[in-house]
Structures are given as C-alpha cells and as structure tokens.
Amino acid sequence: MKATGIVVEYNPFHNGHLHHLNQSRQKTNCEVVIAVMSGNFLQRGEPALVDKWSRTKMALKAGVDIVIELPYAFATAQATDFAKGAILLLDAMKCESFCFGSEEGTLNAFQHTYSLLSSKKEEYNTAISNFMKQGVSYPKALNEAYKLVSLESTQPLLDLTQPNNILGYHYLEATKLFNTSIQPETIQRIVANYHEDAQVDETIASATGIRKLILDNQHLEEVQKFLPESSFQQLTEWTNTHHTFGSWDRFWPLLRFTILRHSKEQLANYAEVTEGMENAIWNAAVKCEQFETFMHTIKSKRYTWTRIQRMLTHIFTGFTWEQLAEVNFPTYLRPLGMSKNGQTYLNSIKKDLQLPLVSRVAASKDPLLQMDIKAANLYYAGLQSTISHQMIGSDYSTKPIIY
Fold first, then answer.
1. How many angstroms separate the CA atoms of 189 and 209, rounded?
2. Among 82, 91, 88, 239, which residue's Cα sits nearest to residue 169?
3. Which residues, in sequence order, are bridge partners of residue 382?
C-alpha cells in the first residue's frame, strides 16, 4: 500500500485542512494518508483548543488513515526541529511521499532556495549573527540574511516571510539532511492566510481566525460554516463536556502560580528562556492579572510573541535546557488513532519498523514519551474543569482510537 504523510496540528480541523487532505491524496495517488499531529501543546507555544484525542477523531472522521503523535519536544520546538521530528516520523512510517500546504504552491522555488542557502551557508549564518547583534528578533534576522544572500540569484526563490513557506522549506531541508527517501509535494494554500481573521462571506478560514471567534464568543455557531460537520460535532461534544477551551487566558492562573513559585534564577533553567528573560517574565507575573497584559509587558522587538509563548510553555510543563539538550531524534511511534484501512497498512509494515511502536504507554520508560504524558496531565489541569481533572492520568488508559 502506498502511503503519503502530512504534518498537522488541526487546531481545530477545518475546511482548509479537508482541502489539503483531499489534494494530498489526489496529488500523490496514495492509498493511505498518515498524519503526524502535535499533542496538547503546539508549535506557536500555546495549549491546543481541544485535546489530542478530540483532534484525532476529527482527523479520522475526515479521512485520515493513521494519526501519529509528534512528541512534545518536537511539537513545541522552533521550525527546524519541528520539521525534523515530523519528517523522521513519516519516514519511519514508510511514507513514500509527504505533502504540505504553502503560499508558494509549487516545489520549484523550494528546491532553488535550498540549493542557494546550502551553497552560501557560511555567509548566511554570519549575516544572521550580525543582524542578531543589532537586537532584532531571530525570525527578522533570518529574513534579512536571506535577502542579503539572495541578491544575485536569478532563480525563482521562496518568500520566506510567509509562515507555511517557512515550514515547508524546513520539511524539504529535513528530507535532505537526514537522507530520507520520502518525496516532497506541495499544494497552494487557498483563501485564508495563516493569521487572518475569519471572513463572513467565505467557507474557508485560518485556524487562527476560527480560534479567535470561538474564544471571543465561547459558542460555536459562528464557526460552523468553516468546519466539516464531523469537526463541528466534535467541538460541540467537547464544549458540552468541558465547558471551556484550551488557551493561555484559561491557563493563566496556573501559569502565573508556576512562574511565581520559582526564583528568577530557577526560571532560567527552562528551555528557550535566555538573555535575562527570566527577570522580565517574573517581574511581569508579579504585576499582571491577565495573560494579555502580561504578554504586552514583556514583548520586545528581539523576541516574537511565539518565542515568548514557547518559553512559557516550557516553564509551565517543566521542560528544561538539560532535557532539550538530550533530544536528538524521535525514539518511538505512538499511534493516537487509525481507520480500518490504516490498521491494515500498519499491520503490513509492523515487522519492518525501525522505531518501537507504542500503543500502551505504561509499558514504556522512554523520556520523550514521559514528557508527553506529563504535558497531557498539565493540559487537563490547566483547563480547570471537573471533567478535565478526571482526565489527568488518562494517557495511561486511553487506547488508540479505531474508526
């Protein structure tokens, strides 16, 4: 059976994701679609709107065949490591290809950009370092350095100010750096840009726009047209059960408590907390009663909102620089769910897998997996609802969903 891979967060699964899924299946002519999906904390450094099990159900009901969890250490990492973890898991699942959405929409510019940056690696890295010394944020330094090294190129190159182009570039980079056999494909992102608010006259909106509507209004009717019916039903079931959604606004009392129970020096031990940010974080937590106020207090031109949120995620979950230094590659495959078709495929490759397949987490002592379990428990604690508190520890008892 021919399998293609996709890398997703599905926060939540919407009509744009359905388009990507269907186009991926069509473009690669595959029989199986495997999604590597982030768990309960995401790449932009924030809690997921709903947990990984609900998002797995959305994926399976929409047509994904297998959902594999991207471990916390990669799911909350900068783009390079996020892509590395995802691509290596898809390669381990014997995918012949993977397909990602991009603003570019064709592979040509990705290939040319990779060739350019590979050939000018030293010049590129020096330029990044020089721009960083001027006090700009890391993403801005990357972009300025990229402009500099691409001045003389006559080939079509990527616009690396676009978020999906950036991730797509790192996916392609990972396939080459780690000598995978997996073949990249891309499709054009349609209608809504990554950060756009939802538009009333469209049926496709960004996940950011959809989340904003849900979190601002705390009801689902306004987002129904942007979602497949199965996703809307799953969100309805979630809100009827939990009566709240995952967000830093919701988690702020516990996050604030976590920050303040540490000294400033202790905060510096957590991953991505650098250059005195522990002082700014602690001081703002003392003063700010609301998360939004807290973020605006510590935001600076050197650190993006996303970068700061990743620091906070690691403080909240207790993920340290020491733990981060020990993370190199994914060490297991954890299926969260699968269709009957996916089950057939998994059975056909099971004997050839080069990573252990984990379906019962209690049987594994892998430190990456233990971090996933810890993050899941803290996510449910952060939701602060009766049912979510009952779900603390549920990773040990929840079996992969068979749909």
1. 15
2. 82
3. none
What is the gyration radius of the CA atoms in the chain, in angstroms?
A: 21
The one-letter code for the residue type at 36 is: V
Report helix, strand or coil for 214: helix
Q: Are residues 298 and 347 in the same domain?
A: no
- Shared-domain flag, residues 200 and 285: no
How many structural domains compose the chain?
Answer: 3
Domain around 136: 119-158
H helices of 29-177, in order, are 52-62, 72-75, 79-92, 108-119, 121-133, 138-149, 163-177
Q: How far apart are CA 171 and CA 97, in angstroms?
A: 12
Tell me whether residue 111 is in a domain: no
Please identify, among 279, 301, 325, the residue that sits at the C-terminal boundary of a domain.
325
Give the pLDDT mean for 245-263: 97
The CATH number for 194's domain is: 3.40.50.620
Give the per-residue pLDDT at 198: 53
For residue 156, cis peptide bond before it (omega within 30 degrees of 0):
no
Given the structure tokens 């898809």, which residue do they identify? Answer: 90
* 238 CB-side CA count, 13 A: 27
Task: Please give the average per-residue pLDDT across 279-299, as a whole number.
Answer: 96
Q: d(Cα 227, Cα 77) in Å, to the nearest integer? A: 28
- In which residue are the tokens 């330029």 written? 127
**Alpha-carbon distances of 172 from 127, 159, 256, 355, 395, rounded to whole Å:** 22, 15, 38, 22, 32
Give 344's strand partners.
none
Residues annotated in a binding site for ATP: 7-20, 101, 164, 189-190
Convert the pLDDT of each residue in 75-118 to its tens digit.
Answer: 999 999 999 999 999 999 999 999 999 999 999 999 999 999 99
Q: Is residue 170 domain-shared with residue 233, that is, in the same domain?
A: yes
Walk across the sheet containing 401-402 and list its strands. 183-188, 97-102, 3-8, 32-38, 66-70, 335-338, 401-402
Q: Supply the pTM of this predicted model.
A: 0.93
User: Which residues does the annotation place in the binding site?
Assistant: 7-20, 101, 164, 189-190
Last residue of a domain, one of 261, 294, 325: 325
Count of all residues that appear for the chain in the document = 403
Q: Is 151's pLDDT higher than 90?
A: no
Q: Is the pLDDT of residue 71 over 90?
A: yes
Query: 260 to each of 106, 216, 283, 321, how far by Cα in Å?
Result: 48, 28, 9, 19
